[in-house]
């Protein structure tokens, strides 16, 4: 089932429907909405597919009902749409990465788009030239795909009177994405198409929030794919122990991978289940007692914890049984002079020195970034025939620094100081009991541990039959599940079943 790309049949720049101004009273030009369009062929899922790749931008307006149409941001996207399909029946999926403030090249070039970058994960990827190949695990046989660069990232830019601060915040970001999606389905006549969201990392925060804001805008979703989820930013606050409990199964998976476990079971999932039982039982009970925990119980719990995490009993006792993911990454292979990756704990590398409590960098990030950035630029120019005089910002300048973390949830009288969006998703499912959610998790992900996701999705008020709306997938990979090709293959199979059932 290989996938082949033909050369572009044509390339054109066209103005999308809708009147837009070409300059603002502030002197900052407002560009016309233009697209570069190319035609391609592929073989995916056992059938030949002719599809159109559209690279372009759409303008979003700050005032929802402003007849003069005053754009404040231009949002960049790359869309892949199958030719000859009835838009009423053809699903469309909106995909984006997280950050917040990160462009979406990772999902586009690594996951379910028509091509993918070859990496050497979990080893650092070698120097250029990098290799981009047809992606036999693309979702194009199931859905049209629209990859969106968050406002302020990629080629997305403020226009007119717009500023970075207009989109730098949890709710500001949700507003901008809602406007873009509504505009996209309006311009492209996709209002009645089955609709899906697909977010990674902070993109899952966005998706949970969008489930509510899109619903309020009259956009009913069929399904949401949550890849490496972060749905509650309050769990790591000082004095709270929940993150220690939900991190432990991921520590266990990592210790298993690096052979830091004695008497290993035959498979890692069995060991993870044993770690879950310990974390939710004896470990939770010990943490609940706090400083009242007896010396004997401290010893007993540390011994049990050591068997799952690979950390020494003495270290665990000195840490009062509370080890953060960052400290775990530094400690597990300290005797070998190595640190572990945050996004993918299979990655390892030497640190500047073997002392200290925290790793100096994340080898799972540095090991793939160069390959993805270079490959995307080359692919965009050579295959999709799109060029720009602007700088492509993989991280939006000024976005994270100005990010407003307050969030007004669906039932909140006052804004939350830190976002809790699992509540938004639960509210949307209660109002639309047909909405399905697929939670995909890498078992070696220490940035968004899978057990934390399980906790949040089981506490969002969806009882009884609605519990069946949420499905889970677990893969031998990290945060970016698709870096492991075998995991990507399994992930793609699970997604195919999910899309079939969610329509």
From TrEMBL:
Gene Ontology BP annotations: proteolysis
Superkingdom, natural source: Bacteria
Gene3D superfamilies: alpha/beta hydrolase (3.40.50.1820)
Species per Swiss-Prot/TrEMBL record: Tunturiibacter gelidiferens
Keywords: Carboxypeptidase, Hydrolase, Protease
Pfam families the UniProt entry points to: Peptidase_S10
Alphabetized GO MF terms: serine-type carboxypeptidase activity
Protein name: Carboxypeptidase C (Cathepsin A)
């Amino acid at each position: 089932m290989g996938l082949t790309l033909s050369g572009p049949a044509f390339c054109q720049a066209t103005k999308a429907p809708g009147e837009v101004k070409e300059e603002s009273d502030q002197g900052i030009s407002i560009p016309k909405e233009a697209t570069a369009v190319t035609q391609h062929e592929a073989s995916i899922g056992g059938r030949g597919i002719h599809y159109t790749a559209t690279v372009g931008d759409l303008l979003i307006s700050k005032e929802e009902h402003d007849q003069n149409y005053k754009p404040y941001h231009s949002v960049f996207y790359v869309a892949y749409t199958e030719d000859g399909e009835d838009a009423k029946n053809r699903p469309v999926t909106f995909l984006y990465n997280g950050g917040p403030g990160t462009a979406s090249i990772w999902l586009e070039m690594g996951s379910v788009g028509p091509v993918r970058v070859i990496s050497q994960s979990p080893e650092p990827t070698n120097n250029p030239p990098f290799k981009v190949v047809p992606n036999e695990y693309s979702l194009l046989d199931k859905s049209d795909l629209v990859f969106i660069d968050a406002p302020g990232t990629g080629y997305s830019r403020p226009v007119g009177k717009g500023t970075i601060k207009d989109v730098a915040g949890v709710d500001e970001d949700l507003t901008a994405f809602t406007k873009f999606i509504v505009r996209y389905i309006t311009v492209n006549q996709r209002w009645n198409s089955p609709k899906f969201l697909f977010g990674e990392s902070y993109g899952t925060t966005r998706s949970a929030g969008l489930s509510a804001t899109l619903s309020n805008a009259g956009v009913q979703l069929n399904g949401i794919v949550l890849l490496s989820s972060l749905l509650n930013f309050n769990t790591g606050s000082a004095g709270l122990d929940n993150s220690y409990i939900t991190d432990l199964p991921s520590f266990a998976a990592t210790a298993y991978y690096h052979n830091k476990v004695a008497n290993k079971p035959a498979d890692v999932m069995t060991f993870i289940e044993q770690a879950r039982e310990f974390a939710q039982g004896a470990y939770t009970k010990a943490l609940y007692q706090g400083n009242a925990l007896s010396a004997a119980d401290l010893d007993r719990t540390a011994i049990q914890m050591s068997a799952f995490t690979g950390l020494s009993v003495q270290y665990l006792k000195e840490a009062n049984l509370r080890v953060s993911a960052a400290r775990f990454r530094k400690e597990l292979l300290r005797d070998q002079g190595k640190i572990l990756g945050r996004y993918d704990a299979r990655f390892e590398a030497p640190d500047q020195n073997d002392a200290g409590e925290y790793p100096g960098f994340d080898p799972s990030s540095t090991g793939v970034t160069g390959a993805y950035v270079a490959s995307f630029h080359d692919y965009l120019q050579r295959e999709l025939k799109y060029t720009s005089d602007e700088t492509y910002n993989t991280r939006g300048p000024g976005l994270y620094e100005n990010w407003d973390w307050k969030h007004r949830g669906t039932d909140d009288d006052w804004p939350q100081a830190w976002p809790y969006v699992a509540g938004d998703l639960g509210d949307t499912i209660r109002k639309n009991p047909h909405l399905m959610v697929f939670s995909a998790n890498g078992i070696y992900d220490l940035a968004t541990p899978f057990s934390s996701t399980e906790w949040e999705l089981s506490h969002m008020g969806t009882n009884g039959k609605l519990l069946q709306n949420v499905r889970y997938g677990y893969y031998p990979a990290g945060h970016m599940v698709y870096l492991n090709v075998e995991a990507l293959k399994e992930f793609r199979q699970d997604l195919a079943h999910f899309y079939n059932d969610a329509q």
